[in-house]
């Protein structure tokens, strides 16, 4: 933990500090994907966008972004249906919650990667709301989003994002559409800390495509 981060935790009235929050993005290889050994696959995998900067003002805040669309291809043997789950991913070089991260070779005294004993956000800070989203383009039973009341995706426990009870009878691809501008919401409290220059809060999320409703 850096001393200057602690000092900037709760700026007094009229003082603002900017904080960049990083989310997992497929291009940066932060997003984990898992597919079953079957004909199911992600032609366009789920990928969370990056959130905009947060200006600290001493109050709890919500930062929104639009979830990226993705697609699922059904093979010829998916009569039992399929589902998509999301969960924070832990392990070496990963974090299931938002944690302090250096994206460069060096960030001051910190090396590239998650900072040992660095700052974190609580689990379940990031919510995906699928209200208004749907799937198009496929044949057979239309998959249904399960997060109209909001699903937390930044914790170690997997949550079901999409489900369909019966798959198609042949090769078909479903593509999501209709995510709102507030479909992703990151809640930050008055205890949010500013990080050293160049560092971000980052989380790893793994999306799993499995057979069964």
Structure, described:
A hairpin with a 2-residue loop joins β8 (99-107) and β9. The strands form five sheets. Strands 2-18-7-14-12 form a five-stranded mixed β-sheet, with no helix packed on it. Strands 3-6-15-11 form a four-stranded antiparallel β-sheet, with no helix packed on it. A four-stranded antiparallel β-sheet has the order 5-16-10-13, with no helix packed on it. It has 213 residues and is mostly beta strands. Helices cover 2% and strands 38% of the residues. The chain has one domain (3-211).
| Largest sheet strand order | 2-18-7-14-12
Counted by DSSP, the helix tally is: 1
What fraction, in percent, of the residue positions are helical?
A: under 10%
Element string (H = helix, E = strand): HEEEEEEEEEEEEEEEEEE
The overall average pLDDT, rounded, is 82
DSSP strand (E) fraction? 35-45%
**Cα separation of the termini:** 44 Å
The stretches of 5 or more residues where confidence is low (pLDDT under 50) are 1-20, 22-31
Principal-axes shape call: elongated
Classify the secondary structure makeup into a structural class: mainly beta
CA radius of gyration:
19 Å
Number of strands: 18
Taking the sheet with the most strands, its summary is: 5 strands, mixed
Please indicate the count of domains: 1
